[in-house]
Amino acid sequence: xxxxxxxxxxxxxxxxxxxxxxxxxxxxxxxxxxxxxxxxxxxxxxxxxxxxxxxxxxxxxxxxxxxxxxxxxxxxxxxxxxxxxxxxxxxxxxxxxxxxxxxxxxxxxxxxxxxxxxxxxxxxxxxxxxxxxxxxxxxxx
Length: 141
Known about the structure:
This protein is α+β, with helices and mostly antiparallel strands. It is 34% helix and 20% strand. The protein has two domains: 1-60, no CATH class; 73-141, no CATH class.
């Protein structure tokens, strides 16, 4: 049974059949989706697959799914600074996001160093299904 987040008014509290999630029947039956947003330029079919057929994950703020190479990236789990050391491509992805917010470099590095998968702030780690590049986004709350 899938017991992760479901964005629907009438979804059962006891969980949803995993097969119904994967085949889209749960999304259709409950008018549900399993993620809040999709980040990236992908086709409508990919957006539908992610929102209506891909299990979601719990995040501090509204969880969103990352994309790359035209597909949804695989969610690997929560990560802190220690876990991200093994994935410098994901850290670079986070740096670019912070730079887009016009954070000064010292604030970016302090924020990245404070990431903690068991506390907060936290990052969410993904891997591209095509090129295997690691991506991440963070809740800096």
